[in-house]
Write a structure and sequence with these properties.
72 residues, mainly beta, binds zinc ion
C-alpha cells in the first residue's frame, strides 16, 4: 500500500508500506478523508522526535477488527 512516511528528515511517499492487519488490540480503518493539523506541521520541525506516518485526524470506516459487543 502507499503511505506518506516521515523519517525525521524527509516526507516520502512509500509505495511498499506494509498493509496493516487487525488483531485483538488493533482495528484497521479505511480512511475516507484525512487532515493535516498544526501538530503534524510541528512534527516536520522535530516535535517529539516522531518518525512514521503522520496524521491523526481522519474520517473512515472500520474494515477489520476485533469483534465488539455492547454487553455490559
Ligand atoms: Zn491534530
Amino acid at each position: 500500500m502507499q503511505a506518506l512516511y516521515w523519517n525525521g528528515r524527509d516526507l516520502r511517499l512509500d509505495f511498499s508500506y506494509r498493509v496493516p492487519t487487525a488483531d485483538r488490540q488493533t482495528t484497521v480503518v479505511k480512511i475516507h478523508l484525512a487532515g493535516i493539523c498544526a501538530t503534524d506541521l510541528q512534527i516536520f520541525n522535530g516535535y517529539m522526535g516522531f518518525e512514521g506516518v503522520p496524521g491523526h485526524e481522519f474520517v473512515g470506516s472500520v474494515s477489520e477488527g476485533p469483534k465488539q459487543t455492547m454487553d455490559r
